[in-house]
Amino acid sequence: MDEYLLVNGGHPLKGELMVSGSKNGGLYTIAAALLTPDPVVIHNIPEIADVSEMAAVCRSIGSHVEIDGNTLQIHTPSILSNSPPTDLVTALRASFLVMGPLLARTGEAICASPGGDVIGMRPLDVHLAGFRALGAEITQEESSWVAKAKSLKGNRIFLDYPSVLGTVNVMFAATLADGTTTIINAAAEPEVAMVAEMLNQMGANINGHGSSLINITGVKELHGVEFEVKPDRIETGTYLLAGVATRGDVSVINGQPNELDSLLSKLDEMGVKVEIFSSKGGIKVSAQNAFQGVALQAVPYPGFPTDLHAPMAATLTQAIGVSTIHERVFDNRTAYVSQLRQLGAKIIDGGQTVIIDGGVPLTGTTVRALDIRAGASVVIGGLAATGTTKILGIEHLDRGYAHLTKRLVDLGADVKRYKENITKD
Fold first, then answer.
1. Which of these, 132, 83, 125, lies nearest to 106 by C-alpha position?
2. 43 and 123 housed in the same domain
3. Residue 117 — very low, low, confident or very high, per pLDDT cuts 50/70/90?
4. pLDDT tens digits, residue range 356-377?
5. How many domains does one find in the chain?
6. Which of helix, strand or coil describes residue 112?
7. Which residue among 206, 228, 250 closes a domain?
8. Run of H or E including 109
9. Nearest to residue 267, comparing CAs of 307, 306, 323, 333?
10. CATH value at residue 127
11. How far apart are CA 4 and CA 1, in angstroms?
């Protein structure tokens, strides 16, 4: 019998918490460590399933990886295989990030099309076009992509779309290429800037990260580093939205407000009280009073994050009036809608646009987490609902949210995790 959550709703969340290190950023730093034969130590790595999956991918190509709580040590003195097993790659989208380091260090990389959440088409064209521009020959053999290059040479590379993973993968390859690479229309997400900072501490020469124009002057080699992953802005947003949906008061002590302007401005527009406190960037939301619906678009950074689309939709079911969310990143982000409807939400799924008729009471029932962020949306829905909500498919939540049950309970939620009628902390 699979594990599941039981959420008894109707309890306003109150209190403060510190979120984990960035899920996405943590995965990028693990892949970046493959670029050097020296040991790398990564602190504040989140204790989530995706990190374990990424570690398994790295071990399969020759890395020694040890995880102790929030610290990960990785050492790849030599590449023993330039082709990670298909079953590992297809379990995790970020696994394709081994392509850039393998190509840069060995001149050849073979990787199956990766897996991860089923939230629409996420083509690899940006990655492959970038590798070609650096001088690699790209072929497809059955279900795997093969990249080969006697040497990589810097180039001007225009990305058709500001793909985060594509930007990072091309940046990885370019760090050890001959000459200078300019990535135009690069992703500007904070996680891209963070891994670029890590690479610079390893001896890379990268400028412009955090903007749409990144310049990389290749170097001969990179050395080891001890690096700390920044807090997870999406996890921060999720807990803040849960606080709003339950009419509570939630503070995230390490909330990174400068990376969440798009969310905080929408909360302010909704009538939610938002406070920034402490030198660490704490964020507090208070929502005892009714809040209004809003219209928003999920777009690349610095716009509203697509990863907060589903959690925001769940919160807006409790708003007064009609809200709309237009998704402009993924073409199947709205799978969560069917599950919120099970709770009683009035939502129209128009494909890329979702229309939410707010202020309708939710009632607990059995729902399923269909992916990481869809899972967060039904958790928020269950917290705001009357009665008990049973959430299946929580392995998706384990991929992105560390110690979710404990953190919610610490904030006053009535949530328990079960497997075969045995409570699990």
1. 83
2. yes
3. very low
4. 999 999 999 999 999 999 999 9
5. 2
6. strand
7. 228
8. strand 108-112
9. 323
10. 3.65.10.10
11. 9
CA distance to 5, 85, 361, 364, per residue, from 340 (Å): 16, 37, 12, 10
What is the amino acid identity at position 148?
Answer: K
Taking the C-alpha atoms of residue 293 and residue 279, their distance in angstroms, rounded to an integer, is 31
Q: What are the start-end ranges of the E strands in 115-192?
A: 137-141, 144-148, 156-158, 180-184
**Domain carrying residue 85:** 23-228
DSSP codes of every residue in 120-134: S---SHHHHHHHHHT
Which tokens go with 330?
């993924």
- 206 in Cβ contact with 196 (< 8 Å): yes
pLDDT band at 120 (very low <50, low <70, confident <90, very high): very low
Q: Are residues 34 and 71 in the same domain?
A: yes
Position 119 confidence tier, pLDDT thresholds 50, 70, 90:
very low
Looking at 176, 200, 228, the residue that finishes a domain is 228
Domain match, 265 and 379 both: yes
CA distance 312 to 303: 14
